[in-house]
Every structure is written in structure tokens, then in C-alpha cells.
Amino acid sequence: MAELIVEIHIPLTPASDLGEGDYPFPWIDDVEEFLGSLDGADGEEYDSGEELGDEYLFFLSGASEQQLVGVARRVAALPRVPAGVYATLNDSEGDMGEGRRVGLGA
Fold it and tell me: Would you list the DSSP string of 25-79?
């Protein structure tokens, strides 16, 4: 049986508070740190983040749809994460970037 995967899609938008020579996507590290701090009750990272087109994707699994979407909403609300974040519900047998789209709020 295929495992539920929630993909968090974040537009590759550079941070607004950059200095000359700064890494343009420091929010990727913020999200990785946040996901690394999950205790497993709300799921865990399924795989490493990956660039897909003009988005960066993070993958969650190991919990119910409601719990994983809740984690995705918390990611979307992190301070430096750009606007336009959404999730897709997929499974371990599906293709990356496909699945039912879920809005994560403002």
C-alpha cells in the first residue's frame, strides 16, 4: 500500500532582507530546521527538499492527512517563508509535483 506524502511547495522567491552576497533563499534552512525538530507525532520529513521548476518542495509523511497539512500550514507561516505556499497530497508511488492541491491560508 502506498504511503501518504504531503508535498509543501514554496515559490523560489529571494528573501527581502538580503545584503550583497547573501544567500537568496535563507528560508530553506529555516524550513529544514523546523522540519528536523518534529517529534514524529505530527509526521516527519519523507525525503530531502528538492527544487522543481520555480518552486522548492519539502516532503512529509508518517501521520494523518490532517496532521501533515497542519505541519504544512505551520511551515507556510514561518517568518521568512515567501507568500504563495501550497501543499499537494500525493503518495509514495506518485510523481513529484502531482496530487490533490491544498491551500494553506494566507
Answer: -HHHHHHHHHHHT--BTTBEEEEEEEEETTEEEEEEESS-HHHHHHHHHHHHTST
| Segment-wise mean pLDDT, segments of 10 residues, the chain, 106 residues | 89 85 90 90 86 95 94 94 94 86 82
| Sequence ranges of the domains in the chain | 4-16+24-94
**Residue 68 burial by Cβ neighbours in a 10 Å radius (0-12, 13-18, 19+):** buried
Q: pTM, whole model, 2 decimals?
A: 0.91
* Amino acid code (one letter) for 16: S
**Which fold, 4-16+24-94?**
Alpha-Beta Plaits (3.30.70)
